[in-house]
Design a protein that fits this description.
The chain is of the alpha+beta class. The protein is built from 4 helices and 5 strands. The radius of gyration is 17 Å and the shape is globular.
Amino acid sequence: MKIRNTGLALIALALGLASNALWGAEQPGWINAADNKILAQKLVNQQMAKSKNGDLYILGLHATVPGEKAQKMIACNLDRINKPDSPDDIMCTEKHMTLVFQKLADPVIFEVLVPLQDVAGNTIGCCVFVFKDFKTGSDESDYYMRAVVMRDEMAKSIPNFAAIFQPTQL
């Protein structure tokens, strides 16, 4: 009996650690959002403050920092700035693709990835919108349209790629 409880405790600990890594626990090299004083972070903060119904759970902007080779998270409402990008994030940017999906592991989570654009419509990265409280049967196009509207609103403040890295007051 004691072995079974220990095994369950280890499984629970492993699941908790995996959840922390997935949803924002700080990792070596990651930067806290409050310390990320660039335009991209300011835009994330503004959109999170305007979130309809408070159901926008995570907003992350992804791009390749000038002088670096790999795309990564450059701004987010969670403390995971500098997190390496997933293949989906990279595909969104490089292939100018939109991805819309319900998380199988957590069916109340709905994600929309759209290319991050500047004011001229040039793709400069990827926007990841994570909505919570998704209900099966909801109209996925509503989430997509909300993400596009937020992305387009941010684009009005981005004159070019270099601007998203410019220092600013949050």
